[in-house]
Amino acid sequence: MAAPHYKQKLNLSDEDLMEASKVAGSPSVDKLIELLARIDMQIDIIQNLYNMYFAGAEENPPTQQRQHLDRMHQTAYLMKKPTIALRFRFETIHGKYVSYRDRWEKKLRDLEAGRIKRNRADSKKKYYF
Length: 129
Description:
This protein is an all-alpha fold. The protein has helices spanning 5-10, 14-24, 27-55, 63-78, 84-113, 121-124. The protein is elongated and about 50 Å long.
């Protein structure tokens, strides 16, 4: 009987397939997947908080949330990524994180140097409905 097509193309043995299935269901891989999802969601939340800060709606930048995100990112960076899909997912999130991090730092430097101003007038208005 001929081998299935997926084994013929990749030259995989039954042992290789069993090892791959063990890796996919391991607790460390599940933790990494969960951590990457949390990091991705946290990046979006912190981006919104920074936007509110730069718009004048918040008094202080989200430094505590940012430190927590930095620690989560460092943890994910140090974890092993056993599959190509997980490496790709991490690299995608890492690129997003670095891009936003550089943007936040540049805007904070510009704000401190006086090159941009926060619009605080709108945040102090009283709205009556």
